[in-house]
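Re-running the complex after MR caught last week's input typo. The corrected sequence lines follow. Everything else is unchanged.
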Amino acid sequence: MTDGLDDETPALTRTGGAAVRTARRVSMADVARVAGVSAQTVSRVSNGHPGVVEATRTRVLAAMAELGYRPNRLARALVGGDLRTVTALTSDTAPYRAAETLRGLVASARDTGYSLWLSFLDEETTTEETDFTALLPHPGAPVVVIAHDEATVAAARALRRIQPVSTVAAGGRGLVGVPDGADWVLGFDERADAAEATRFLLGLGHETVHHLANPLRIHRMAGWASALLDANRPVPPAVGCASTVQSGREAADPLVRDPEVTALLCDSDEVALGVLRAAREAGRDVPGSLSIVAFDDSPIADCLIPALTTVALDYRGLGRGAFELLRQRLGGDAAPDAPVWKAPRLIVRETTGPPPRR
Amino acid sequence: MTDGLDDETPALTRTGGAAVRTARRVSMADVARVAGVSAQTVSRVSNGHPGVVEATRTRVLAAMAELGYRPNRLARALVGGDLRTVTALTSDTAPYRAAETLRGLVASARDTGYSLWLSFLDEETTTEETDFTALLPHPGAPVVVIAHDEATVAAARALRRIQPVSTVAAGGRGLVGVPDGADWVLGFDERADAAEATRFLLGLGHETVHHLANPLRIHRMAGWASALLDANRPVPPAVGCASTVQSGREAADPLVRDPEVTALLCDSDEVALGVLRAAREAGRDVPGSLSIVAFDDSPIADCLIPALTTVALDYRGLGRGAFELLRQRLGGDAAPDAPVWKAPRLIVRETTGPPPRR
DNA sequence: CTGAAAGCGCTAACAA
DNA sequence: TTGTTAGCGCTTTCAG
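Corrected-run output:
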């Protein structure tokens, strides 16, 4: 190696087929040599340890800059240090909620110099008998599980057993099987949100409100039921569905054929889309003969016809919050006590109105 | 907190705040001791190296199983070995395409024992002056860029310069700025797909077809234009838009107000949803006065009202293909020459019909 | 066919 | 305040 400056990949390309190895990284030793200090001092500077006199510090920093030094996170992690990586564990990133939560997670991770390792729960592999260690970059790696279905909730629990401190289930609060109030769980106040939406529908004059619910979200159900009870209304059986368009369509089918059903609370915008289709096929006019309120306020809500009345939920903020909580539990910083996400907000659009006249 | 029942966290929790270290992993040395061989032999077995007599092999394997040994990938990578990790680089996982591609990637990665590192391009950080090394787990890490917009395309190009072998742009072929025919790029035959969709619309009797296009997808535009030209039809200016619902709605606005526009080819289902809304606001009936064909066949296509005529594209397969290609380029296996994804397919639903009578 | 030695890049512990 | 010694878990030489 002669000059500096080159970094990139000069002659290397021709290495011939297999795993081209990059031009020997600049290591701490290199920096140390240039700065005329020991590797240890470079380490201290690199990690912002106290007790390095300003003069040397500057010298080391200069050498780092000159050489384009970047610490090798693998080596750092190997000695028990921090890989500076969060593992996001989930079963699907396609649903709006999951995608947004992930985005929030990634954003704050990056802001703090963390990288994101993404692990998917295998759909086939059953129950808790998953090999979680295989899902992690290394044992003990901090993970945030983005919990929104049975598989992810089970995973959150199982992980707790293996890794006491480092797991946080974003969106988990209010899910069956996730201990409520656990300090490693983060989620919206689903009970209040559902109650509010239900009251809104009641206020429009509906006799009662039906619920197309994700069976996992017990707090939503509780909020819905109690709002009904408080108003002395009958509580119809909740109808279970997954949080997908198709599932919504199928689950809604019997409901929309029942003229008694005039107001419907849906688990998500995706579900509501399916409901809209089912209603149309059953000849139900929305909102003329059927009102719909959903949750999420994803980008589709605004453009559907009719546009969806829905509760806007800040999943991105939730993702950010999950990361903060994780760092905090890892002993990083003090608790970030400012509220992390925007308050939920019922956005009234076109799918809601008074019940049909009898 | 007193009770039992709460399972989890045995004695470990009390370690006191910071990074609880898990109960010392079992290492190669441990296995070696139990098997009565040297660590080196364990390594050989672990990596399937030849030249280990069957008897020892079995013994080592038994010891591994007994101890629950898992190789430490960080240590392995540190010595120049393979981290067994793919980095997916993209700007957003929310769009259906990106989400599905990612899924495919993750699926085949897992099947081969790889993990996935997810890196997001920073929206703010401009141009190619991004610090790509910072986006990678370690220098030289193999990455698949899921390219679908300017930022990702730029990233794909920039990465090439740094890492000759290991990048593959899924979905990149046919994007401006990605060298066509490059053997590190994988994508659908967008030209043919767009031409087919255009011909379909022409066949319905439309005088011409307008195009709400992602300006990056030149091959789509080429296919569309040439289908028009082949049929001796006028080629109207393509209207640019991003691949989002809102962008579709805005971009479609002038188009749907123009009665001359009777057929519209849209960049994605998301865009088409926005178009549907714009059409509705302009009082255009779909498909009565305006026909729409989109691309993707995402879950929403089927449930929109009217249901979307769209070209189904197998992004999941694309993701799988990208991973295979990557492995192959890394010198892994032979080329997987079986086609990796399902052929595109025009699914005719409810947004298409003959043009309005004049 | 198997083992021993050396070292990847880093940090904890101790010494100076 | 700084340097030295060790060693994380693994793989690559090179010997036996």
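None of the earlier attempt is carried over here. Chain B touches chain A through 74 residues (CB under 8 Å). Residues 37-41, 44, 51-53, 56, 75, 77-80 of chain B lie near DNA strand C (CB under 10 Å from a C1').
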